[in-house]
Amino acid sequence: MDRETFRRYGHEFVDWIADYFDQVEDYPVRSRVKPGEIMDCLPETPPAGGEPMDRIFNDFKSIIMPGITHWQHPGWFAYFPANNSPASVLAELLTAGLGAQCMIWQTSPAATELEEVVMEWLRQMTGLPAGMKGVIQDTASTATLCALLTAREKATGFESNRTGISGKLVVYASEEAHSSIDKAVKIAGYGIENLRNIAADRNFALVPGELEKAVQKDLDAGLKPACVVATLGTTSSAANDPLDEIGRICRRFNLWLHVDAAYGGTAALLEEKRAMLKGAEAIDSYVFNPHKWMLTNFDCSAYYVRDEALLTRTFEIHPEYLKTGQDAEVKNYRDWGIQLGRRFRALKLWFVIRSYGVEGLQAVIHEHLRLAALFKSWVEEDRCFELMAPVHYSLVCFRHVKEGAPEEELARLNAALLEKVNESGKVFLTHTSLKGKYAIRMAIGQRATTEKHVRQAWEIIREHSA
Ligand SMILES: *Cc1c(COP(=O)(O)O)cnc(C)c1O
């Protein structure tokens, strides 16, 4: 592609994205295609010769767009948000243009140093303990895997890296913890049979007494308790595990404490939400996702550790071809995680934080929390609905109720209601199971969502439940 063509389409694409932000509401939130429908529109073999950009872009609009589910739609209430922002998208464009690999300081000093600075900004912004050091990972799943690997090395005096794992190390997490914990336990070699799913209370938070009992039982059986994963903002209902008490148990038994705050962590931008971080001094590692709720487009996961040496000792490598004269003076982020090649993700975070300012970001989160509280009040006031979990953040779990109906019927009714609501194309919500009960999740956190959209969602839900 020649320079002039690149320039022309560059302008056209930015115009297209700007229009998309304005018009995203005109699309059905959830894609309406059937399985295989997109594939049927695509040739089975690649083109031998190059095609003009016009044709490629037209196919993007006519073939790809119908198969897109619109996460940036203000009627997005499914899963958790993965919101973006104009500042973030522009920075991502620059990152792609630079095409820099940010594995060591020398491969782009600005990328390394900016990452160090914005991670420290973010630490201050969310009230994490001073001295915790951050690194950007692609996802919370990867960050949690890093945590479990470091915990494994610490528990075995770095022997597992050398001789392999013994099969005796144990990990603890609440039964409400995210599936990425299971995955990391498997990949890190603990073995899924050595993950203890600790009971949660009626508010879906881990019961510390149960954790303590489980640790003691494993010790008595000759196993080696190694790591506890606490969650702030569980995926099903956004429950908070009691960090303070869990931290005390971890200190007593010398266990690694990893905190998964993938979604909830962003709320700590607000002073009034920091109570959940009480006891944070005991945290060994912590992850939250600016790519979920902090207007920074995927992927950008903030991973913090208390002892950077344990992390780098777990991952460090020293091949001759990567040695530089500055190694003693600088950070080489290749040693802070699994990948060698790294994207320049700090740039978009820098753009977002500067473009909104801390107060601008706080205002966005504050408004989402207000909208969730409003939605919760509507659920509570309506006899045909019930609240299914406490609301700590911007997630409301609820269901439609019918006098005397057994659980199975309620599950069927609510699943049918959810499908009808989603077919409207105006909103998209998803469901979960809480202590065996079907619950609909209303997760508020899209950048463009306003009270109007939340009211509309409630009207659609009530209309279809009638
Ligand atoms: C979303 C979520 C994850 C997974 O996040 P990824 O960045 O997609 O890996 C993990 N834990 C919790 C609590 C989550 O809500």
- Mean pLDDT, as a whole number? 97
Please give the radius of gyration in angstroms. 24 Å
Strand order of the largest sheet: 2-8-7-6-5-3-4
What is the CATH class of one domain? Alpha Beta
**General shape:** globular
Distance from N terminus to C terminus (CA atoms, Å) equals: 57 Å
- The CATH superfamily title of one domain: Type I PLP-dependent aspartate aminotransferase-like (Major domain)
Ligand species: pyridoxal-5'-phosphate
Number of helices: 15
What would your notes on this structure say?
The protein has 466 residues and is α/β, with parallel strands linked by helices. It has a domain at 100-343: Type I PLP-dependent aspartate aminotransferase-like (Major domain) (Aspartate Aminotransferase, domain 2, 3-Layer(aba) Sandwich), CATH 3.40.640. 43% of the residues lie in helices and 13% in strands. The chain has helices spanning 3-23, 37-40, 53-64, 86-98, 109-126, 140-155, 160-163, 179-187, 208-220, 243-253, 290-293, 308-315, 346-381, 407-423, 451-465, and strands spanning 76-77, 133-137, 169-174, 195-198, 224-231, 256-260, 285-288, 301-305, 385-387, 395-400, 428-434, 437-443. Helix 5 (109-126) packs parallel to helix 13, helix 6 crosses helix 8 (179-187) and helix 14 packs across helix 15 (451-465). The longest helix has 36 residues, at 346-381. It is globular. Bound molecules: pyridoxal-5'-phosphate (PLP). Pyridoxal-5'-phosphate (PLP) binds at residues 80, 139-141, 178, 180, 231, 233-235, 260, 262-263, 289, 301.
